[in-house]
Amino acid sequence: MNQARDFILTRLGLSKRPVSGDDLATDLGLSRTAVWKHIETLRKNGADIQAQPGQGYILKSEAFTADMLSARLSTHCIGSTVQIVEQTGSTNRDAMQHAEQGAEEGLVLFANRQTEGKGRLGRVWHTMPASLACSVLLRPALPPERVPQLSLLTAVALHDALSKFVSDILIKWPNDLLHRGAKLAGILTEMRAEPGSVHAVVLGFGINLKAPVDGWPENITQAATDLESAACRKVSRLEVAAAVIHALEHWYQLYLEQGFAPVHRAWWHAHAASGQKVRVHDGRGYIEGIATALDDDGALLLDTGKQTRRIIAGDLELL
How many whole angstroms separate alpha carbon 15 and alpha carbon 305? Predict the structure, then answer.
């Protein structure tokens, strides 16, 4: 986000009283006209900033800025650097570019609007207004074959964080969070590596915070929901973002200290289909069976009655 606009949002968001245009101009070293132009841009981007004659500007909606989010964090790694941009094509792509430019582990990148978000298998991820599109940069000392475990770790962290706002959240293999069968969040993990060594891992995820005013896009192939509808109340983007970052930090540090076992147990416990009959479309056809286990590579093991099938990719349906 533009630094001046970020400052204005933070200042208004922290103040319980109107802030005068003169004070903002003095603090920023800008003219009153320049301040007004920044405020008009913020309004166009959705900020509910109202002018009160003779008093100044007041923010009626919640401010979501890097400074305000950082003030809520008590993490040591993830969230060491927080960036929030107004619009980008893909937060995953941006985070990977930062990685290639030498950014340190722990960078967290949010976008208020994402125009080219990607889902699994080349699908489009729709970033709705008031949703969270986020990518986290990690540089774990792992062999490339273990990186899929970090996607499962992300699902566990999101499950824990979102469960603070609403119950009945489940994980659906391989990368979805559901509330009562409808998709609430999705995950896409990407990496840069060479044989035997990982240079960077980007954990990308999107969370539906609020239902779109015009309804969900027609090309969404599965039922979708949002956190506010599930919780039957308004939710704070700052609170959700902080909860997610804290949960990611907790599970990442636990993973580095104790390995995959704690993540594996938590994931299986929260999985919607553990021990249940499912079918998975693997790109060629459907495979039906009982979901009996998850292996350390993130593959789902299905007991078909004749044999145990190891499913490494596909779309799972609960039966």
Answer: 64
DSSP class of residue 306 equals: S
**Side chain identity, residue 87:** Q
Helix (H, G, I), strand (E, B) or coil at 31: coil
Q: Which residues pair with 137 in a beta bridge?
A: 202
Name the pairing type of β-strands 107-111 and 81-85: parallel
DSSP state of 296: T
- Using DSSP bridges, classify how beta strands 182-194 and 132-138 pair: parallel, antiparallel or unpaired: unpaired
pLDDT of residue 90: 92
pLDDT at 163: 97
Residue of 155, 164, 150, 185 lying closest to 270 (CA atoms) = 155
pTM over 0.85: yes
Show the beta-strand stretches assigned E in 73-179.
81-85, 107-111, 132-138, 169-172, 176-179
The identity of residue 173, as a single letter, is: W
C-alpha pair distances (Å), 255 with each of 152, 154, 198, 221, 280: 11, 11, 16, 34, 28
Residue 125 pLDDT? 57
Residue 124: its pLDDT value, please? 57
* E strand intervals along 250-314: 277-281, 286-294, 300-303, 308-311
Residue whose token pair is 């970020």: 6
Measuring CA to CA, which residue among 73, 148, 140, 145 is closest to residue 108?
73
**DSSP H or E run through 261:** helix 261-270
Q: What is the pLDDT of residue 112?
A: 82
What are the residue ranges in the chain where pLDDT is below 50?
A: 121
- Residue linked to tokens 């594996």: 264
